[in-house]
Amino acid sequence: MDLQDKVISFFSDKLPETPSIHLEKMTIHHLLSMNVGHHDNIYGNVASEKDWVKAFLSQEIQHEPGSYYRYSTHSTYMLAAILERVTGQNLVDFLMPRLFEPLGISRPVWETCPMGITAGGMGLSVPTEGIARFGQMLLEKGKYGGRRIVSEAYIELATQEQSDNRRDEVRADSAQGYGYQFFLCRQGCFRGGGAFGQLCFVSPEQRIVIAATSSLSSGNELQVLLDLVYEHLIHKSKEEIVPNLDERDLLQQQLSKMTDGIPIHPFGNDLCQTPNYRSYRMNGNPQGIRCIEFSPLGSGSELHIHYENGDHKRLLFDCKEPVIFQDRFVKDLSLHLQEVVSYAGWEDERTLKLTLVYIETPYIVTYTLKFIEEKLELHCAMNVSLNKANFEITGTHADKVEKDEEKPELRGNP
Predict the structure, then answer these.
(1) pLDDT score for 14
(2) Cα distances (angstroms) measured from residue 369 to each of 242, 282, 355
(3) Which partner for 111 in 30, 183, 333, 335 could form a disulfide, CB atoms 3.0-4.6 Å apart?
(4) Is 241 helix (H, G, I), strand (E, B) or coil?
């Protein structure tokens, strides 16, 4: 593989009947530098199709490749598709001995497109420490633990300006140029970034690496975080930011006191001790939720959500302490069994709040359940989302529904 290899050379079976001149000029270099020539974001056009490669190659290319920067998640996907086609290996299998194992990263989960190709530009679950190690490898120009992982020449190319991303961009650290899959930042720094503030930030001059897994709602909030990094770290001299041993101890003490900020406010008895709050038949709703049931489980409780299609979600909680369990929930593209921590508490005698923190993702889901006589009001809200995920639905105590259904229907005079 070479940076100047033509993209169409890898996919003769996926090309449109008459490839455009711009498509014929597209190279691996253009995919890496987000400069393939699409005028608008093509994410939705590609993601809505089953065959992402074919959909990508069929998009209209308004500008000559190399002349127009447009951030494109699916350009990175195409790099993954090319690598898998050339090597005959799944991308994770290919990278395990070449990247993940040398960095001490256990085999990660990486989501795939509908055709089974690794998503490339999204869907990778790596611990924050793994991101930091990747950044340390970049800081050392391709080495980690004394071992060469990536060539120094490629790191130099990847962290130099390959595209001009300043057009219509007001955020300082998104308008310093773009390399190969990295945003160039102020004062010679660079970063890799993801939705909701996922971050791998490298400052070669100060020899600083910052890894963050976040739940920020916008790119503007990420810029605030970066501004703070520059104010308190990058703009300081090396002498000012090297703590002594006493300061390290104070920092560790401060970190040990920090929590995720999710309050637990038990109001009254645990739900499992309230027999009236057992089962509710939900009114028709777009989410397809048919029934919600509660049952005791040890010192805590279970919330069961039954769907019209037969699916079932089981959520565990305890009003006295956090509960760790596994639940199927979306990452980027599809549902995955993953670890979740639940917090529960009564806000008042009628309102139970259940907060679910899916620790492999930026997502925190909050269920607010209001019990009003024989009715249940359920409000669901997510902290951040690429789609509108909030909803409100209502239901009626199942015993009440069944009694109403048993009443004979009167037709005319007896």
Answers:
(1) 96
(2) 49, 13, 11
(3) 333
(4) helix
pLDDT tens, residue by residue, 349-398: 889 999 999 998 999 999 999 999 889 999 999 999 887 789 999 999 88
Structure-block tokens of residue 254? 């401060």
Backbone angles phi, psi at 113, to 5 degrees: -75, 175
Q: Which two structure tokens, joined as six digits, stand for 412?
A: 């005319």
Nearest Cα to 47, choosing from 121, 109, 113, 130?
A: 113
Strand intervals (E) in 189-334: 190-194, 198-203, 208-212, 279-282, 289-297, 300-307, 312-317, 323-330
d(CA 281, CA 286): 15
Backbone torsions φ then ψ of 165, nearest 5 degrees: -105, 25
Concatenated DSSP letters of 335-365: EEEEEEEEEEEEEETTEEEEEEEETTSS-EE
Quote the CA–CA distance of 358 and 344 in Å, as a whole number. Answer: 15
Region for 31 from its dihedrals, namely left if φ exceeds 0, alpha if ψ lies in -120 to 50, beta otherwise: alpha
Q: What is the pTM (predicted TM-score) of this model?
A: 0.88
Q: Describe the strand order of the beta sheet including 183-184 as a list of residue ranges.
A: 183-184, 190-194, 198-203, 208-212
Please say whether the beta carbons of 13 and 52 come within 8 A.
no
The pLDDT-based confidence of 275 (bands split at 50, 70, 90) is very low
Structure tokens at 108: 């990660």
What pLDDT digit, counting tens, does each position of 146-193 carry? 999 999 999 999 999 999 999 999 999 999 999 999 999 999 999 999
CA gap 71, 47 in Å, rounded:
15
Q: How many residues does the chain have?
A: 414
pLDDT digit string, tens, across residues 182-195: 999 999 999 999 88
